[in-house]
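Q: Entry one of two.
A:
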Amino acid sequence: METVLPRIRVPLPDDSSTLSLDGLFDGPKRAYWMEIGFGSGEHLAALAEANPDIGFIGCEPFINGVAALVSVIDERKLENIRIFDDDVNLLFASLPDACFDRIYLPYADPWPKTRHHRRRMVQPNTVVTFSRLLQDDAEFRFASDHMPYIQWTLGHVTDNSDFQWLARSAADWRTRPTDSIETRYEAKARGKGSACVYLQFRRRGRAGVGPEPE
């Protein structure tokens, strides 16, 4: 935490300037992916290890999770992860338009009590933010075992015409994408008998031209 984290921490600009994602890494990457709320970081680390030409921005405000991922980064010598160890809402305004090819939101706190729903990460305004940050045809991926939050997310994202839900059959939302791994939270949920759901949304082209993908 004293030697590795300062080197890979995503800084907030002192003014209203926009961050350069290329500048966060040793050189430009083929693409950039973000994971919001990476927990202990096992999913993010696996993605980064499998995709060394992609730059990853991981966001997590809790120190225990950050420490766990920093340890893995140091152990595996992963050079393509940068960490924002605070509330991701503070970072959004500093990120450039159309900068990500994927945004992941795995097993976020569902805030089940009605009076706490405003604290959920998925809100109409954050869906608008995701739309701004995603490139054309990029993906927003959400996973949860909390059905009310799943329904909430599906409703809010599909209410935004910038997004298309990619499911064609029940298997598409019941089966984890093949390029992802089981997180500790997912394993715990399954151990309790909970069903996990995986939602994938495509950011439609800004010009609104051309046929929908098959």
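Q: Entry two of two.
A:
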Amino acid sequence: MYLLFFVFVFGVVGAVPLHFVSVGHTKLQARYGTDNGVKIGEAYGRLSGYLLFFSMIGIWVSPQPRFTVRVLPKVLLLFPFINLSIPLTHLIIFLFGFLPGFFLLYHSVSDLSRKVSEAHQPEKVVSTGIYARVRHPQYLSFILLHIGFSFLLSGLYALLATPLVFLMLYAFARKEEAELVKEFANDYEEYKKEVPMFIPR
């Protein structure tokens, strides 16, 4: 009955090896040459990004058991045409996840550039703007958005998948940092000492 949910979970997990390949810039360039290595890395980066994006949406909206946290009045909004009701508590939790999550995502893409965000091909260590406060603002935003949308849509399985989402994003961050140390050496090591990974200053 809930097979579609697990198909999307498989999609999220499937994005991991694609992402790992995409950030292995030195290995790709050594194997395929500089230009081809960059292009292949960009292709893998975009593929992993789109797979992750659509799989996460699938996790939120796919059929699954629903839950309700009843602290405030039971229902704020009713959408009978899609059989959805949103408890007030869930809406508040959603806003606490969505608003900072969207803020972080917007500013991280702006500070890094859309091309670098999609293709994972940085030309330097970015340590200004939102990156002066947290090393991985995009991944922090994904965690906040995931929790927010899980509550908004009352998806029990989606909420229970939160540790998996966090572990996946943590693995992404560790892999990226290992590659960035190879590429930028002391510049990135110093940046790591100054700026926390996920918890902003």
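A: Comment on entry two: The longest helix spans residues 34-61. The mean pLDDT is 87.
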